[in-house]
Amino acid sequence: MKRIILSMAIVFGTCAFAQEKKSDTAKTKNIEGVTITKQVFKKQSDRFVYDVAASPVAKGNTTFDLLKQTPLLSSTDDKTLKIAGKNNALIYINGRKSNMDSESLAQFLKNTPAENIQKIEVITVPGSEYQVESSDGIINIVLKKKMSDGLNGNMRMSNTTNKYNGSQASFSANYRKNKLGVSASLSGGENIEAQTYTLRNGTAKTSNESTGDIDDPNKNIGGYLNIDYQLNDKSNLALSWNTWANKSYNSTVALFNTIKKENAKEPEYTWSKNKEDARSYNNSVNLNYELKTDSLGSKLNVNAAYLNYRRFQFTDNQTFASDIDRVVGKRTRQVMQDLPQIINNFSGMVDYNQKFKNDLTVSIGGNYNKTKTDNDSKNITYSFNPVKAPDSRPNHFIYDENIYGMYITVEKKISDKLSGKVGARYEITNSLGTSDNAPTEALRRIERNYKNLLPYLSLNYAINDKNNISYSFSSRMRRPSFWELNPVRNILTDDNYTQNDPFVKASSTYNQELTYMYKNSYFLILNHSYIQDAITQVPLQGYPVSPEGKIGENPALRYIRTNFGNKQEMSAMVGIQKSFFKQYWTTNFNIGVQHNINNGSLDTDPTTGDRFKDDKGPEGKFITYTNKTNSTSLLIQTNNTIRLDKKKTWFFGLNYFFVDKQQIELGSLKNLMSLDLSLKKMWNDWTFAVNVNDILNTNIVKIEDFQENGNYNYIHQNRYNRSLTVSLTYNFGNQKVKKVRDIEGASDAIKSRTR
């Protein structure tokens, strides 16, 4: 109830790196520093490599700060990272996917000194050996190897102010002694996520406007524990446990509604006052065994994992009569919902990489995921004007899914100039959804069985020492998240709600990328993605008409999660990163163009069979929502770090991004931009920082959609991105301690679908 989920493919541009060269002179008596001209950014067969050890940017930074300044990466909210042309970035450490949830991972990256990193690899089009979905990319952080034993850690406290005030604290420690490594973290905090909405929709004869506030208090605590033990020189055994808990009680919605009905002289005014109590728990355990089989780097990896996710959600949605002066009158309707979700997953994964002396690597592997979701929801509606008997609609929806996957990839360096990688992943998915009290017979049993062959190809050609060109192609699936399959409604007002769809099927994505690099400094990247059966939210509105022909009393607006036609996304961008004035000023700048092609239509609610008319009378025509439009958008982003003193203790940051107006599934998304400033002071092991985000208050979502049949839809969503954050960090212990070997969990591909 507390949000309308906006499905938008907003691609923020990122950056490239160019190292400024400088010559020294024998006549200089007092040498203050030497600028290394080592190649710091280069393209390999299937990835971009950023040699952090050769760059002064790493000094004094955290890993998260460093990633934001890495070529091709960007962060627009200081929480998540994006890769150029990608919807999402997955974090790997030493080739292993992090087993932490997103909140813990962000804290881990902000608490890890960047000096411990050897290089960062950006894989824009992952190969068949990686379990990723849709157009996701990978960031692989490679840690330095020669580090001493010992203990180190980090304590961090921060406070953020926007509409409300929020606080966060974390503690992390890493210990290594001989063959044993232990890494642990604990963090927690509380905040209130605030939103202000204006929702306006209607037809040529009717309209509905809702304005007001949504406040969502959150308290959370979580952490992780990783234990890694070296059995011998060739094998390791590791156990990891991740946990996270969130409590959101007394989340409130207060929206004032103005409803204009057909042939009515005066509008109808109501208040929607909703309350929600929710809490969630996420626990996962992963056991990993790694065996090195030869001196070339061949190895076997075996993983077994268990994931348990629980969410409990209670909502009380009440509607009150009102007038033009917004006086709260008598209660007219009340809907009470109990919407639990429990997910259990058992997973296994086996990978084997065989390396040969002639620069040939063959990788084979397989995985199995068994998932069961249990959603025993209850829905009771009370009507007070006129008084009616309560309408109870319980629905116990159970979803079972089995995924079998296997892959093979072959990587070969053909010559000093040419290298390539080819592979394929084959997946079998069997799923069954059952409901004991569904509103329609079709919802009682939903069975889907499908098989997919997903090819992959990557070629890299070094024309000479200054020019490089590469091409990649991959095919991926995007399975619906488990909450998207649960057939429940998140009610905002009486006639305005979001609705999930158990009939949603997996979409297919075909990605292509062409990259040209000059002097390992300047780049041009061309991307193309074709998405078949795109999963998104579609607004259906008008007078609902049931399959039996019964027409609703009021016009309704339903944001329905479903498959909506096909979509193409194309982008072209150029970028540069450069240091000026003896590296006092480091700037990332890129500019690009994105072109979206949407082609979808929907005229029927897939879960109820309802269709929608523009008129309640017999002359009313059925309405079809269509989006067959194109848009071309300008993307700009720049990140700047200015060193303010000679001792490298004061730093000033200026970041800016601009995303031009573009067409998405819900309509035309207006332009977004944000100007952020920061100031950082380092003193011994202490770091004090102040960050001001969205100073101009321009990072606000606005969507408009006008249909040829006269229907329109407008969304204005302010999430209060303008904020002030003050943080204090203390690093203790031996900062050269070797980090624990992070292990890719067998359930990682499933965990992402619980979000």
From TrEMBL:
<keyword id="KW-0472">Membrane</keyword>
<protein>
    <submittedName>
        <fullName>TonB-dependent receptor</fullName>
    </submittedName>
</protein>
<keyword id="KW-0998">Cell outer membrane</keyword>
<keyword id="KW-0675">Receptor</keyword>
<dbReference type="InterPro" id="IPR036942">
    <property type="entry name" value="Beta-barrel_TonB_sf"/>
</dbReference>
<dbReference type="GO" id="GO:0009279">
    <property type="term" value="C:cell outer membrane"/>
</dbReference>
<dbReference type="Pfam" id="PF14905">
    <property type="entry name" value="OMP_b-brl_3"/>
</dbReference>
<feature type="signal peptide">
    <location>
        <begin position="1"/>
        <end position="18"/>
    </location>
</feature>
<dbReference type="InterPro" id="IPR037066">
    <property type="entry name" value="Plug_dom_sf"/>
</dbReference>
<dbReference type="InterPro" id="IPR041700">
    <property type="entry name" value="OMP_b-brl_3"/>
</dbReference>
<feature type="domain" description="Outer membrane protein beta-barrel">
    <location>
        <begin position="292"/>
        <end position="730"/>
    </location>
</feature>
<keyword id="KW-0732">Signal</keyword>
